[in-house]
Design goal:
239 residues; alpha/beta; TIM Barrel; 7-stranded mixed sheet; two-stranded parallel ribbon
Length: 239
């Protein structure tokens, strides 16, 4: 039986000019140390295809596996995180709200500094470099605030545009702000209807596979003060 740690990042590197530090900025050197901790603690990085194979029961994962993910599609992932990922031979998944591609994080400017989000050519470059581009909806709206029809539109429209623009299948979804409407059955039905095979919240611990519900997968919230070594060692010892 495998144990999976899904690491949830937002920003790597310094704030954009005129910005300020928040917990969601992980310095490049800290990010590199956290990736090093994954292998040091006996966990093996996997990609999106390996996860999907494991969820389908067609591909076993290592005993301890780790999946690196990023929310929102910030340009800093390409500028600062990608070189570190490549040095550590670590694949990753990037969840993008399609309504903000090539713009900024207008959806949370009241709480976070303004940061540029990758445009379509930059997302294509990331995909070619081994970063799987997956869906974070269109408008980055909490699912609790949307009607059933609104959720279906967010799921279907974002998936269609990502697949059209990038030419790769979109099978994974990350709930904006980690809000899955408290596991509402309508949300799961909408994900299945749109062709998604798994969905992630934000915050949680490593878990055992097979997962109880692939549409409510937990992620470890990653910040500059996250002691990943301690967390992974504790998870490896858990039964």
């Amino acid at each position: 039986m495998s144990r999976l740690a899904v690491l949830g990042y937002h920003k790597v590197g310094p704030p954009a000019p005129g910005g300020w530090d928040t917990w969601y900025y992980v310095p490049e050197r800290v990010f590199a140390d956290q990736l090093a901790a994954v292998r040091e603690c006996g966990w093996e990085p996997i990609d999106a295809a390996a996860l999907l194979g494991a969820l389908a029961g067609s591909r076993p994962l290592p005993e301890r596996a780790a999946l690196v993910t990023f929310d929102d599609g910030y340009r800093s992932v390409r500028e600062f995180a990608l070189p570190v990922l490549q040095r550590h031979a670590c694949p990753a998944v990037l969840f993008v709200p399609t309504g903000f591609v090539g713009r900024t994080n207008e959806f949370d400017r009241s709480a976070e500094p303004e940061e540029p989000i990758s445009d379509w050519p930059e997302l294509s470059e990331l995909a070619r470099a081994g970063v799987s581009i997956q869906s974070h909806g269109v408008s980055h709206t909490t699912f609790s605030a949307l009607s059933g029809a609104g959720r279906r539109e967010e799921l279907a429209a974002s998936k269609a545009e990502l697949e059209r623009r990038l030419g790769e299948p979109v099978d994974l979804f990350a709930y904006p702000y980690g809000d899955d409407a408290e596991g509402n059955a309508d949300v799961r039905a909408a994900l299945v209807e749109s062709g998604y095979r798994a969905a992630f919240g934000y915050g949680g611990d490593p878990f055992q596979l097979p997962a109880g519900d692939p549409y409510r997968l937990a992620r470890v919230a990653m910040g500059p003060d996250t002691d990943l070594r301690a967390l992974l060692r504790a998870a490896a010892e858990a039964r």
